[in-house]
Amino acid sequence: MKPLLQKLTETFSPSGYETTIREVIREEIKPLADEIRVDVLGNLIARKGNPGKNGKKIMLAAHMDEIGLIATHIDDNGFIRFTTLGRVRPHTLLGGRIRFAAGIPGVIGGERISDTTKAYTIEQLFIDVGAANRKACPVKVGDVAAFERPFLDLGSRLVAKAMDDRIGCAVLIEVLRGLKNTPHELYFVFSTQEEVGIRGVTGAAFGLDPDLGLAIDVTGTGDTPKGSKMEVSLGKGPAVKVKDAGMIADPRIVDWMIRTAEKAELPYQREVLEGGTTDARAMQLARSGVPAGCLSIPCRYVHSPSEMVDYNDVQNAVKLLLALLNTPVEIS
Ligand code: CO
Ligand code: ZN
Questions:
Q1: Average model confidence (pLDDT) for the chain?
Q2: Which pLDDT does position 223 carry in this prediction?
Q3: Which ligand is closest in space to the CA of residue 218?
Q4: What pLDDT does residue 102 have?
Q5: CB-based burial of residue 230 (10 Å sphere; 0-12 exposed, 13-18 middle, 19+ buried)?
């Protein structure tokens, strides 16, 4: 699974420009799915299984976009000012490297600031692609970029840009690979534009009108020095979301996930995330409402160029999803 994860995380596809990652994922799932299509918003939707007597129509979603930057202005000396696509924090940027969708690399510099105790704002930063002046700058206003950072294998801990949420995409691909005679009609949705407001999945959920929905995404942890007070740690199992800032997970789905984890003797954690939300929110609120939940991969340094997950958590997430989807669902 590590080579797959490296391939997925090193692909550049900020929100709204998911063409490249979509083709990478499509190649992976082509031999595994019964049917594959792309909808108007760019969501990649793969079906596995047919509606059966004991089956449900289940929608699984992981977003394939990543946070990024977008050029807003190029000055006479060829420096590029930018704004963000999704929640990119300025202190993660200075000195970093980025790459535009067209393949153009650049570095991020900052204005001279007199008070070095203060963090930079986005307005004080700029991208330098090595151009001598505006005319020589190959970047146009509206061009999008993402972090440039190679995948790092630390053994059981893995680090990459865009782990949010290519790790969810990798988990779904592995689940597709591992499914055996599911009684359900499963829709694997690799969604677009999550980082700018859960947009792609909203259309997909309306179109699919599922019986239940599960998102696979990252969540924060509370296991770093003076970090947030959060009872999720790396390596203690995937997290069953109970609540985040945008959703209260359906308690029946939470029960189903926990019951299944305990029966299969798989480690899990209970998650309450105070900031952020996932594609599950849009599934829950689709049409007249859908029972929805989320399986989270604990992740340190979310939305930085170096997001870290634990490989055992990832593998246990795949196992738990297989246990959930290979048998009839009992929720009451
Ligand atoms: Co995110
Ligand atoms: Zn995410």
A1: 97
A2: 97
A3: 2
A4: 87
A5: middle
Enumerate helices (H) and strands (E) in the chain, giving the number of each. Answer: 7, 17
pLDDT of 332 > 80? The answer is no
Surrounding residues of ion ligand 1, Cβ less than 5 A: 164
H or E stretch at 128 = strand 125-128
CA of 167 to the centre of ligand 1 (A): 11
CATH architecture of 2-66+161-325: 3-Layer(aba) Sandwich (3.40)
First to last CA, the chain: 35
**Domain 68-147, what fold?**
Elongation Factor Tu (Ef-tu); domain 3 (2.40.30)
Q: What is the pLDDT of residue 231?
A: 96
Active site positions, annotated: 194
Q: Which phi and psi angles does 106 have, rounded to 5°?
A: -160, 165
Distance CA 89, CA 94 (A): 10
